[in-house]
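From the shared-data thread, chain only:
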Amino acid sequence: IDMMSLNSQLLDAIQQKVNLSQQLEAWQDDMHRVIDQQLMDKHPKEWSQLAYSFSRGYGQGDEPTGAEGNRLFSFFKKN
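Structure, as tokens:
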């Protein structure tokens, strides 16, 4: 086997890995959307509070504290 053939095989393997990585990333994005949708369907009140808090500026370095912060993420503790 000559050097050109080895280079070609290596490039093919790299391209296959890139394609698989892209497919995995797309699948992970899909799963995140499905999980988020299921959480929103199961806990709509908590999600609306979370969306309201983020629209007020939280999530950009300012985290809610005290009772408000506990209420926002309480649905994670329930499961």
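The chain has a mean pLDDT of 78.
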